[in-house]
Specification:
Elements lengths: L45 H5 L1 H9 L16 H14 L4 E6 L5 E6 L3 H10 L10 H13 L10 E8 L11 H4 L3 H22 L4 E4 L4 E3 L1 H7 L4 E3 L2 E3 L7 E8 L17 H6 L52 H6 L5 H7 L3 H4 L2 H14 L15 H15 L3 E6 L21 E8 L2 H6 L7 H25 L4 E4 L8 H7 L4 E2 L6 E2 L7 E8 L13 H7 L2 H5 L11 E3 L2 E3 L4 H10 L8 H5 L11 H9 L4 H10 L15 E3 L5 E3 L42 H10 L3 H9 L4
Antiparallel strand pairs: 1-3, 2-5, 3-8, 4-8, 6-7, 9-10, 10-14, 11-14, 12-13, 15-16, 17-18
Helix pairs in contact: 2-7, 4-5, 5-13, 7-13, 13-16
The structure holds iron/sulfur cluster (SF4).
The site of iron/sulfur cluster has 14 residues, from helix 18 and helix 19.
Length: 732
């Protein structure tokens, strides 16, 4: 885990993780020594080759229709610049700069990724029967994008440039070295492209023309723009960025959206001294900028090797009695079919809850496009056969790309849905699961209430990251000769929480279906790649969370919908779990007027930590001294942790209106703070559950929920001990 001594809680998000504001600047860019612009040559083997389709897909959607209903967003050019930079940093870009777009930066001949044509051909023959709902719209959008004549950037006046740090080269004796060799430039270009394409879409949704430019498809000289925007200097035919040197990927967007530009960097920069070395006031420092500087990629960015491993998850799973349920039981699917009533259906129809805030809507298009790449036939491949070597190499590849935690386990039949979204039975095709988690990000979470206008984008950003990187890992496995499918939020066939438990990525928390990781807390989204590749399994972990959550009910207290139980764990569908009321939770998330979706439980949990050195004693005591759990939970409250930090609020509270435009919301925002004095007792809660006997049939037609039956079913749930006793008596 990268070492951080100081909090950056007083640093606004738009300043980013590096102290760019402390650099010396000048009025005009020094363009001497600028290299000739040329597209990135991507290796045709190894992990870089597996990225090719995802890069081409992003290149295919770097442009698009501009919303005719222009948003009512701030005119102030300084505020606009701060906003877009913060959005870039929210997406984990390492540096963002803005410049006016000089005509001389236009390429005489735009580059077009040749992979787009290959992709267009593949899509013509793509089998769509098992794909997500809404796939027809996604296909039509892509067809239009790929076949449209190239658009121009005439009239664009400004550019936003994004730099992504390149992962270090693999060490010669490291797992996966062969696959990772030469893949760094493509990986950095991929991550920079992700941000540029999403933010260009964001500006078009706001009603301003914008187009993204990547190292494989561009209308502009990206190196020149990096120099103009004060992110880099040109020297001897190379472009070098402070803090990153020559090791970065670059992408940009050009637009008609006017913003205050940055000033170019001076060629000579004085030393930034101990503040930079130690990270005073910035998230990144000389000490921690590369979590893999002294760690193997396969070991991950956090000290997972310090965790206590156990033979079985810390919560009981009665495997023979876990029923397989259809995908149709998913609460968001039920909402769309009207099972939760008309108000919820209206909020869910067409994914309205994801579109109502433009920051999330901007992520949605790419998320849909990646559905088309998450599965496919294996190629001939080399079929590497050693399970341990394969496991190390797959983990190394995932961490190299930027996944935050990876675990590998069996993928038992009971972890698969019984039927897919269209009602077709699922015959589990793969025995193994590679579970991955993506951090939703502490910084923006700190400025949010958890259920305000950024909440849905926090989820979408993490889902999108998995769709991109998990999709690349699945493609890589297929090119090695094995079958593999990425199960994403839009099209997944496995139930993910038990797989996270089996693969040692976390323990069951009071929040319910949310698995809590000791290093990321509950602040995560997961995705799974299933495969038939031989892989060694990880073991479950025990970091004391069961005792901690027994002593803490902060998430239950802070949940705005009252969906989280303050009572004990029960057996539900074969799992020992603090069973929450998913109906209440989904209803609130879909219909809340003061924001878009909700993750307030993640925000307020004491395990939602910044990652500071000073927090290590908390983690150690919480994990190793169960008797301290009540005191630690009380201390967390006394310190006011989980409250709002207005310094970190960067997003605009814009809401989708009927004409398709985004305007300042007319509803009071959910700007909640903590309620430490609220006492919540299980006997005061009325919760409902829908176990297997109450689930809808697998087919896509309405099946209204019977809440009274659900409430009775909650009352009938057995404790784990009573369940075991009933099984021993032969009562199934
Ligand atoms: Fe567990 Fe407390 Fe976090 Fe809820 S808020 S998941 S009870 S530690």
């Amino acid at each position: 885990m990268a070492l951080r001594f100081f909090s950056d809680r007083n640093r606004p998000v738009h300043l980013g993780p590096y102290p760019l504001e402390r650099l010396r600047r000048q009025d005009t860019p020094d363009l001497r020594g600028l290299p000739d612009a040329r597209p990135l040559a991507v290796p045709t083997q190894g992990l870089a080759a597996a990225m090719a389709d995802h890069q081409a897909m992003m290149d295919a959607i770097r442009d698009g229709l501009v919303n005719r209903a222009r948003a009512a967003c701030p005119d102030d050019e300084g505020e606009r610049a701060r906003h877009l930079k913060a959005f870039g940093y929210f997406n984990d870009t390492h540096m963002v700069g803005i410049c006016r777009l000089p005509p001389a930066a236009h390429l005489p001949q735009p580059w077009r990724n040749p992979g787009i044509d290959r992709l267009a051909n593949d899509l013509k023959t793509k089998q769509t029967k098992t794909l997500a709902s809404g796939i027809d719209m996604i296909m039509a959008d892509l067809k239009d994008s790929m076949e449209a004549p190239p658009s121009t950037i005439d009239g664009h006046t400004h550019a936003v440039i994004f730099l992504s740090a390149r992962p270090r080269d693999p060490w010669p004796d490291e797992a996966s070295t062969e696959w990772l060799e030469g893949a760094g430039p493509a990986a950095a270009a991929l991550r920079a492209s992700e941000t540029a394409v999403v933010l260009a879409n964001y500006l078009r949704l706001l009603g301003f023309d914008a187009k993204a430019h990547t190292e494989t498809s561009s209308d502009v000289d990206l190196n020149r723009l990096a120099v103009e925007a004060g992110l880099a200097v040109a020297e001897h035919g190379e472009v070098s960025a402070p803090f990153l040197g020559l090791h970065f990927g670059v992408a940009a967007l050009t637009t008609t959206f006017a913003m205050t530009p940055d000033r170019p960097l001076a060629r000579y920069q004085p030393s930034l001294g101990p503040r930079w070395w130690l990270g005073w006031g910035t998230a990144n420092s000389a000490l921690n900028r590369d979590p893999f500087a002294r760690r193997r990629f396969a070991d991950g960015p956090h000290p997972f090797e310090t965790l206590k491993r156990v033979d079985a998850p810390t919560t009981y799973i009665d495997e023979p009695r876990v029923p397989r349920v259809p995908k149709r039981t998913d609460m968001f699917a039920r909402a769309q079919f009207g099972d939760l009533g008309k108000a919820v259906q209206d909020g869910a129809k067409g994914g309205h809850y994801a579109k109502k805030a433009p920051t999330a809507a901007a992520e949605r298009r790419m998320l849909g496009a990646f559905v088309l790449l998450q599965d496919g036939p294996p190629s001939e491949g080399l079929h590497p056969a050693d399970p341990q070597e394969n496991a190390d190499a797959i983990k190394a590849a995932a961490y190299f790309l930027g996944i935050d935690a990876v675990g590998i386990s069996r993928c038992p039949d009971w972890a698969w849905y019984s039927h897919d979204a269209a009602g077709h039975p699922i015959d589990p095709p793969h025995p193994t699961a590679i579970s991955m988690i993506v951090d939703q990000g502490f910084e923006t979470m700190e400025g949010a209430s958890g259920d305000d206008w950024i909440s849905v984008a926090q989820s979408m950003r993490a889902y999108l990251r998995f769709s991109l990187l998990g999709g690349v890992i699945a493609a890589h496995i297929r090119q090695l000769g094995y079958s593999a499918k990425a199960h994403t939020v839009l099209d997944g066939e496995v139930v993910q929480p038990p797989l996270l438990l089996l693969s040692g990525l976390g323990e069951v928390s009071r929040i319910g279906e949310v698995i809590l990781n000791p290093f990321l807390g509950p602040r995560l989204k997961s995705g799974v790649v299933t495969t038939d590749m031989p892989l060694a399994f990880d073991r479950p972990i025990d970091f004391g969370l069961q005792s901690f959550c027994e002593a803490c009910n902060k998430c239950a207290r802070e949940c705005p919908s009252g969906a989280i139980t303050a009572g004990p764990k029960k057996m539900f569908n074969g799992y020992e779990i603090w069973k929450s009321d998913s109906q209440k939770c989904a209803t609130y998330r879909i219909t809340t007027k003061g924001g878009a979706m909700c993750g307030r439980c993640m925000k307020t949990c004491p395990w939602n930590l910044e990652g500071l050195f000073a927090e290590r004693p908390f983690r150690w005591m919480a994990s190793n001294v169960p008797s301290l759990a009540p005191a630690l939970a009380a201390l967390d409250d006394r310190l006011g942790r989980g409250g709002l930090n207005p310094v970190k609020k960067w997003w605009w509270d814009l809401e989708l209106e009927e004409d398709g435009g985004y305007r300042p919301t007319r509803h009071p925002g959910n700007a909640r703070d903590l309620q430490p004095d609220l006492k919540i007792r299980p006997e005061d809660q009325t919760l409902a559950v829908y176990p297997a006997p109450l689930t809808p049939p697998p087919w896509p037609y309405p099946y209204p929920m019977d809440r009274e039956a659900g409430i009775l079913a909650y009352g009938d749930l057995l404790s784990p001990d009573d369940h075991r006793a009933a099984v021993a008596r032969g009562e199934d």
